[in-house]
């Protein structure tokens, strides 16, 4: 009987931070509508604007450019559209280019027609092929509109960090718009929307220890903006109508404040724990494939394949021992399938892979226990292979 469980699936969702829980519950006691001008409404408005400043600070952006949404998926669908405005002037986007390893919320293309979406290959190292991107942006007919490129800052499965500054230079040279999915990177990498060269960032509350049900689309400025996905009462300066989810937004703001505080110290500690775990894994099973180990990755993520072990079998084996991890991204309930990310990197699509992702409350004892269980699973795999 397992006495206590070990949670190593922070990339799917991070545990709710105590400060975010307090902010969430406190906001539930507020009565006013943020659009009301009376004292109760102004109190709620203050709460939202304070949270907006915290999220902006986490991403090195101006608070006025933060648009709250119901999550990263809504933010993606809001910004991935052919219809923009430059001030009051309509601005048409003719084509969307996405890397082959993007999250499904991006790969689906948002409000673009399927014929307007093209996929850009990645290298065997898991980073976008810059040559392929440059060639793609040189090809289209600009009379149909500007190009848009969507690339994640860090991959949700492998943790591999993308060369966003180089991508931005190519996109700007082509006169395009760059959208960066920073969902996994927020709180794990220092972020500045200006330094990245992004026009828009996407972030999510529950990935950084905030409540589920809140996210944000962050613009570099306020002049060039997408046509609103949610229309109605004109909330969020008309960019996202609907009465604000103040409890989730309050929790999001608190989580963003915690995520931004001491990020360098926290990421160094997580990198040390991840490397320690991977060293133990390699000692127990020298044939284990740790994807992206020789390139820049998120401090908290280890995505690995154990030859002869199916992803679903491995996930169940860890779960039975009290360790929660995942087989790739958590996009739908109960879904365990082949990794399209590994396929894009040139691996056999039948290769199974498991993702361990840790966080601020992960202990060294939990790292050691995970390494122990990994060694047991690897040994059982060898025995079953020998028996066969």
What is the count of DSSP helices, taking H or I runs of 4+ residues? 12
In N-to-C order, the SSE pattern is EHHEHEEHEHEHEHEEEHHEEHEHEH
Poorly predicted runs are none
By secondary-structure content and strand pairing, the structural class works out as alpha/beta
Mean pLDDT, as a whole number?
Answer: 93
Q: What spatial form do the alpha-carbon principal axes imply?
A: globular
The biggest sheet, with number of strands, parallel, antiparallel or mixed sense and barrel status, is: 9 strands, mixed
The tally of beta strands, per DSSP, is 14
| Estimated radius of gyration | 22 Å
Percent of residues in β-strands: 15-25%
Tell me the span between the first and last alpha carbons.
Answer: 30 Å
Helix-residue proportion = 25-40%
Description:
- The chain has twelve helices and 14 strands.
- It has 388 residues and is of the alpha/beta class.
- The strands form three sheets. Strands 2, 3, 4, 5, 6, 7, 8, 9 and 10 form a nine-stranded mixed sheet that branches. Strands 11-12-14 form a three-stranded antiparallel sheet.
- β6 (146-152), α6 (164-173) and β7 form a beta-alpha-beta unit.
- The radius of gyration is 22 Å and the shape is globular.
Task: Describe the SSE topology.
Elements: E1 6-7, H1 18-28, H2 39-58, E2 66-69, H3 72-79, E3 83-86, E4 89-99, H4 104-107, E5 117-120, H5 130-138, E6 146-152, H6 164-173, E7 177-181, H7 193-196, E8 200-204, E9 215-219, E10 224-226, H8 246-260, H9 263-284, E11 289-290, E12 301-305, H10 311-320, E13 323-324, H11 340-344, E14 354-357, H12 364-387
Helix pairs in contact: 1-8, 2-8, 5-6, 9-12
